[in-house]
Amino acid sequence: TFKGSSYYDVLNSITNSYDSEGNIDGYLAVGSFQSTDIAGLTNLGGDDSRIIKVDLEGNLVWQKNYGGSGSDYFSSVINSYDSNNKIDGYITVGQTRSTDISGIVIAGSADGIMVKYDLDGKVVWQKNYASNNLAGYKDIILAYDNDGKVANGYVVVGYDNLKGIVVKYDLAGNVVLTGDYLHDKMYNTDYQGICY
Fold it and tell me: pTM for this structure?
């Protein structure tokens, strides 16, 4: 079973899943969980982020958790693309408060988190939006080239303290540009978050 019963569990977003040939083979959902009795998952502390794949009949194919000893969650998921414009996995975004995730150093009380999985649910890379404040990612969409036909990255929205944020990544997860929405104006920022 992929259901928990001991604590609070939630799913926040869903998308179609694909096989290696590009055919729809099920559904992928993300969220968080606190339960300690979900078969195959060991809670790492507080809320863990969770990604679940089910087939077209709703049978569990695989599930993974992500996070550390703090509170973590995924808020949105989409399909990821390689440089040949073929689906090669999934991109999830959310928030982490954990200070013990290998390869991630959070700067404030919480950071936005972005994780790429391959089609089998293995982590390919992870990125965080480091802020001295409370930050988190809420949603993600594909970015396209000028013709609108070829995916060339991802655009993520979220918040950093009192500001709305927009961050564009390339397909490899490198930051291309960032922007802050503060009150009624959009500011371009450099990679250190300094407005100009």
Answer: 0.85
